[in-house]
Structure formats: C-alpha cells, structure tokens
Hints:
By secondary structure, this protein is of the alpha/beta class. About 30% of the residues lie in helices and about 25% in strands. Strands 1, 12, 13, 14, 15, 16, 17, 18 and 19 form a 9-stranded mixed beta sheet that branches. Strand 2 (about 50-55), helix 3 (about 60-70) and strand 3 (about 70-75) form a beta-alpha-beta unit. The termini are far apart.
Amino acid sequence: MEKKPFVTKEMVEKIAQTYPTPFHIYDEAGIKARCKAVKEAFSWNKGFCEYFAVKATPNPFIMEIIRDAGFGFDCSSEAELILADAVGGPIMFSSNDTPAEEYALCAKLGGIINLDDITHIPFLEGIIGPEFPEIMSCRYNPGGVYKLSNGIMDNPGDSKYGMTKEQLFDAYAQLKAHGVKKVGLHAFLASNTVTNEYYPKLAGELFELAVEAKNTVGVDFAFINLSGGVGVDYRPDQPANDIKEIGEGVRKKFEEILVPAGMGDVAIYTEMGRFMLAPFGALVTKAIHEKHIYKEYIGVDACAANLMRPAMYGAYHHITVLGKENAPADHKYDITGSLCENNDKFAIDRMLPKIDMGDYLVIHDAGAHGFAMGYNYNGRLWSAELLLKEDGSVKLIRRAESLNDYFSTFDTTEYGAKLIRN
C-alpha cells in the first residue's frame, strides 16, 4: 500500500522555481475536510470544541483555517498565546513549569487556565490576586501505566504532567474558595494512539472521576478535556483512526456515565494537533548527492533541522519519489541530511525506486511537529512554509529563514556589522 502525496512532480517543479527546496507545504482542502469530520463526529455534544494544539503547527495562516471551523487553540507558551490572540478564537492554556508572566497574559486574554499542579494555585494567586476566573481547569495524572486492549500505550507514572487524584480533589476545593464557579478536567495519558479505543476509554475514566469529584467536593463541571493522543497512520500499512467511530464511542460513555449523574450539559473538549494537521503537511526536498560505501546513501537538501522526528524518536515518515510513484521499490537507501550527526537520516534501509540526482522527494505526514520542532544546529536555516490553496494556487505563509535572521541576535555586538549583510 502506498501513501499518495497531495502534490505532483509537475506541481513541485513549478513551485520550486519560486520557492527552492526544502520547503514545508500544507493542504488547505485536507485540513478543512478534517475539521469538518471532527466537528461532525462530536456534533452530539452541544458544547464541543476542538482546541487545536498550537505547538504542532504554530502558523497563523494554518490557525485561521482552524478558527474558521469554529475551533479554538491550546497554548503552552507566551508565543503561542500571542499567536492565538492575533488569530482570534477561544484559548486554553495548558502549560507546565509556567512563568508568572505567561499566567498573567492568559488571564488578560480571557483564556481558560488549565493548572498542571496543585502548587500553582498559590503561585497564581500571587499573580492575579485572590479572585480567580469563573472557569478553571486541572490536569490529572493517574500514575502507573496506561493500557488498552492491544497492550501498554504509555507510562503516566513516569510523566511530569498533572496531579494525583487526591491533589486534584484538593485543588478543586481550593479553586472553589477562590471564587471559581465551574471547573474543567484534563488528561493526556497516551501519545499518537492508532486505535479507536483510546478516546472512549479515557473518556469513561474521566467521566467517572468527574462524577466522583462533583459528589465529593461539590464542584460543577463546565467541560471535560480529552486532550490529544489521537494519532495518525505514519506507516502505509497502519489502519487509520476513524474519528466518527471515536466520537460515537465517547458519546456512549457520556450517556452511560454523565447523563444519569445529571451532568448531561458538560462540554467535551479535545486538543488534537497531530490528528488535525500531520497528514496534511509534507516536507519537500531534492536529491543532491549519492554515496556508495558500505551502504547506499542519498543526500537531500533538507536535514533533521527541518524535520527532527526521525532523528529524535526514530520515527517513521513515508517517502514518495515524485514521478516514480509506480516504479518498483527495488533500491535500498539511507536518506540523509547534511548535519554533522549520524542520526540525521529521514529513512534507514528504505526500499525506494531508483533515485536520480534532482529527483524531488515528498516526506509525508510532516504537518504537525515538523516545522515546529526545527532548530539551527550547524547553522542550518529554517525552510519556508507554503499553503496549497483549494483553488490550486500556492501561498507563502512563512518565508525561509535567511543568514541575516540567523545572525540577527548579534546585532548589539561588535560582530553585528561583520555578520549581518545588507
């Protein structure tokens, strides 16, 4: 089974005449279709809102598409708050080890603060005073390992995020004392799950916890936030998640647990960055070198600075050689970048069609945690971001970084004049 790119060789050849490779490109039509599918999957819940995880793809032009679908933004830093404010839309602030000025900014912007730890309550009081916003949320960590029917998915007990159950209930009591009228519950227990089981199972556990908190502490819930964790099929042989089935599974748990408890008005929130964007972004790069030693290497003009996931996690990203989609994959290559690090490889021992110098390669599923995780090691520069519009036109939504950008923070030193060129 082969993944089909949303750009063709002819399209990329034309684009590259204006915007040289490497570049990240996003599919507007695909993003809009995903927004529509998510909205429909949870349409049974009147208060449903997807708070797109800005960290996944922090670009205002992408965020505009999300906003226009009626969704909001999950932020975790000052920069992300400023982006969300510039674009407009509801804000959820889920951060950890949070500086005081970021809490202050979120409060000023009217975003919902999702507290990561019980000690953040007195910390927050020192910033905004004793009267807290009417709605606030807390993040829960059940500890231990998190299992689904197909095995262990993640290890919350080894995670720095969230509160224990005892701390959670204590935090709710303290928030009530600070004037909070309604609370939220948030948890992120597994990453990139490719199973329709995760959200419904998590929902059931959080719904039961919310009922217990209501009965024990006497708090009213405005929302329950299932956070992220719904993944994508990076490998072509993986089954894709069915968001319609996932939404239906959550609905069943909602009607089974919350409705009988008199909590049928609780809103369901999600924070899906990867699921919303990963399949609709690609890193496009060109083959510029070949090397024949103990293995066969193809060197491309992108590197791990443009897409860190394979180097950092050993993550799989499918690769299409444009114009050779139907050619036999009978050559084994390592696809490498130019960094002085041996892990700078987009693929290892990957079977692909014969690659010639000048061929364009599409690295799939780079729409989330792709450009966003870029860095400047070896002085490599960030690539441009482009948006493939529904009408087939291409819009530059972030220019490529220049050497002057890279050297700009020396502008107040004696080296500024030597490094920064006019």
